[in-house]
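If you are new to this repository, start here. Below is one unmodified record pulled from the training split, so you can see the exact layout before writing a loader.
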Amino acid sequence: MAIEVTNDSFQETLGANDLVLVDFWAPWCGPCKAMLPRLEELSTKVEGKAVVAKCNVDESPAPAQQYGVRSIPTLILFKKGQAVEQWVGVQEVATLEEKILSHSA
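And here is the target side for that same chain:
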């Protein structure tokens, strides 16, 4: 299951996990809503290898600003706290799973 991260918990989540995929989203964004079931599916597939997290940019704008997020949905894969991959727009589960697994080896 994807977890929610906020301004306060963002860095803590990155620090506590080797691999974290963060979805920067907003509730009014149609493509963001389309990503939600895909993220839930992905979180099940990569359980034990990576954490899937969601950051609502309306409620917690600081992480999005820090990483230069200009449009949503934007997904950033962090490895040991460093951004290693980034995607903008709706993505396929298989693509994201493949990238996550390539970084977990």
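Two things worth knowing about this chain: Helices lie at 10-16, 30-45, 61-66, 93-104. The CA atoms of residues 49 and 105 lie 9 Å apart.
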